[in-house]
Amino acid sequence: MTAERSNAEEPRLSIRGPSRRLPLRGRALRSLVTALAFPVAGLLALTAGGHLLLPFDGVTTLEGKIASKSEFFEDEKVQRILMKHGIRVHITRMGSRDIATTGFDGYDFAFPSGQPAADMIKNDRKRKNAYAKGHSAFVSPIVLATYREYAETLRDNGLARPRQGMAADEKSPLYYTLNMKRFIGLSAGGKKWSDIGIEKHRTTNGNRILAQTSNICEANHAGTYLGLVAFVENGNSVPTDNAAADRVARMIKPTLVSQGLPSEQMFKTYEVPEGKGLAPIVVVYEHQYFAYQIRQRQQTGKPDSQRVLLYPSTQFLTEPEYIALTPKGDRLGELLASDEQLQRRAMELGFRVLDSSGKATSTELYRFLEDQGIPAPASAADDTKATLPSLPLLERMITSVGDCPPPNRTPETAS
Amino acid sequence: MRRRPHHLRPHPRAPHPRAPRRRGPRRRVVLALCLALLGTATACGSGDEESTTLHVLASSELRDMEPLLADLRRDTGVDLDMEYKATVDAGDGLRPGAYHHDLAWLSSDRYFQLRLKESRSTAKPLSTTTMLSPVVVGVKPETARALRARAKGGQVSWADIADAAAAGSVRFGMADPKRTNSGLSALVGVATAAAGTGSALRAKDISCDRLRGFRTGQKLTADSSADLREQYIAHQDRLDALITYESELLSLNAGGKLHEKLEIIYPKDGMVLSDYPLLLLDPAKRKAYDKVVNWLKSASTQKKIMERTLRRPLGADVRRDPRLRADIGNALYFPDQRAVVDQLVEDYGDPRLPTARHVIFLLDFSTSMRGARVASLRAAFAGLSGADTSATGKFVRFYQGERVTVMRFGGRVLAERDVTVGGRRDLDSVKSFVAADDFDNSTAIWSALDHAYGKASGIARDHPGQPISIVLMTDGENTSGITRQEFERRYAARAETVRGVPTFPLRFGEADTAELTRAARTTGGRMVDAGARSLPEAFKEIRGC
């Protein structure tokens, strides 16, 4: 939003309300008071902070379509760092696949949570000969966030085992490894939590065992989870042709659609005090869980020992890609990829950041967690690494399992 | 500030709604300062507003937000012009893509989402959850005690409520599922529990209506939750329970108009949560929408919402009122197909109309039934009379007002008895009827079925519109009386209403699968093979079909 109010309007506005004796009344007066008060407070804050953060001219607002990574831009420290560079971000939140399948007019950047949507966007821009420039800054694996009672019930049934880690506590571990093959098997068999002894942990739940996701047609984590389930069900290999994709899609559909109408922003639902009843197992990104625990640690002095993480035995690392749609948007992309403060902050928000060679490691992140008094999980080298099918095949499976509407892209003006 | 800020300009009286409102550079500086240094957009909001009126299609439940809207206006300059409608109506009025309002604020947008999904081409409006409340059951203390005493582990389920409703010991009020979100949420909750799959309902889960027993307990309905509350207050002495939002029940308890406070039961088998989404229908109003959303989600507003409406706040930042700390239980999965929801609502019918069906049980009492088979039949009837304590058993049991005709047959119809279920005595009468030992040496299946259709014809004549079905239980082949062909000829000659009565054969022992399947198909029923599972299970399976 950089278009400015036309100057011709101003004189007209300034002579409005001629019948008023005093121009400063009511709202206008309050506005004046506020206008005076806040900059003063602001200046004080500036001095107290010791450095002048703001260039007073040329703050650019960038319009962006973002999915789960909006949490990064909602962080106050991130906002402050960006402001130092004269950038403010205005977010329109939607699922990653929606980001890719709706129009780009009026946006400076798109930031889907994973590679499939990023590839869709870049392909589309290329076809239209439109501006697109990608930047990578951090990665995060797909995980299942749950509650102690559920993790322990899975453990009782031999599906989950505590994941070794620095300072791991055998009795109340925060991290477990989940046998994906068996977990999917239970779910596909229509088993309910009440069938596998959840009552032993003083919890009742007659719902079918499954991991909840947002809408498969919209969200990257849901599409990625589908890819993960497909990989496991296809004997730890990626479907490579239409016939295989269709067969696997048919096979996994019943498990994935039993949750009915999906809700958005699963992690927010998981976080609320009622979360255990609303979203007992949700598919999320590792960074969301760590960000939550870091906040918990700051607010209460210790991590939340009831909310725990299941690492699927078959892992998938998501690589969100920032895509600048305008040269203006590219400046933020450069910053995300190179600015040390932003990188540092991303790590403090639970992301695995890329090192100088562009390789993602969890070392720095886990050290930071330890420093924060949060046990870090062991990075398990023996986990199988899943691969997603090619984009056309993944799309084919997503639209078939989710019964998704065709893309709703508005005609693009040449840019 | 070197230059005169824009704030000094007198406020334009009527802003041009279509004119792009873009910030000048100086205003951006002020905002930037506020945002960057104080980190709170709301603190800065009051100086920055341009007054805007947004037209909102709102669920009638949200009337209680009215007093907060003045604060919203004061803090953000955004005025919400609310047009209230009962939610499901609002969901219906919200035709995807053809909007007449700037925003919609609903108790739940699930039905709208189903319509959106069906339209396949319309972009999804931005949507933000604003608060939470589950649909649960408020019960008078004495009834609550009785329910708990009968429930497994003292945890009451929807099945227990349905069981008590069918037995006449719980009379409840619930808003119309066709018109309100609370009614629809309750109906989906109870139907999901009745299906017992733990998954979102599919079409095949509701092909038979297992909620007849539950429905007989509904003695009060209303077109809105507010109306339901008033009606409950007026008729509270004739009712035992109220199914509605947790927030409504807590407000009622706090309102001083109840003779007995209602204990809140969070059904063990789960509930459906309302999350009060605010939808942006006109994307041009995005800026004002953002202001409203930020204001609503702020901790101070969330706290006010909780205090005023007793809905649950978002996030953990707001310390919950002690009344809002109860475990709400599990959220049931909501169906993702509109056809399923529509079918469910249609089957439930108009809560004002009587519900009872008439079922004719045609029971084979040929000598081959003697012994274990008849014992199994008697167990099935005992189960339907209330002895079956499984969740499905509680849903499909005989219910108040249900009309039952039992017929024993061998080479001819040996005896028949009509019962309208009222109390224990009526159920005992059915029990003693199937306890008889007058087995016959031959089996005249088709003559007996023809006789049952004669009976159905009489019922249809005396009670037009009464739903009737026939359950034919047999364990052998036809050995006397008319042939199936002759039965079919007579059936075809009957009045249309009588031909609409379906027969559900329960195949047992040596009975002829092909013949029975054919009879089911001719009459619009379905054959169930009781050999594959127990006879009581087979009886349960076709209840409500």
From TrEMBL, chain B:
In terms of SMART domains, this protein maps to: VWA
Q: Which Pfam families match?
A: SBP_bac_11, VWA
Q: Where is this region: Disordered?
A: 1-25
The chain positions of domain VWFA read 358-542
State which residue ranges cross the membrane: none
The cross-references to PROSITE patterns, in alphabetical order and at most eight, read: VWFA
Q: InterPro entries given for it?
A: ModA/WtpA, VWF_A, vWFA_dom_sf
Q: Which PANTHER family match?
A: MOLYBDATE-BINDING PERIPLASMIC PROTEIN, SULFATE-BINDING PROTEIN
Which protein, by its recorded name, is this?
Answer: Substrate-binding domain-containing protein
* Organism from which the protein derives: Streptomyces endocoffeicus
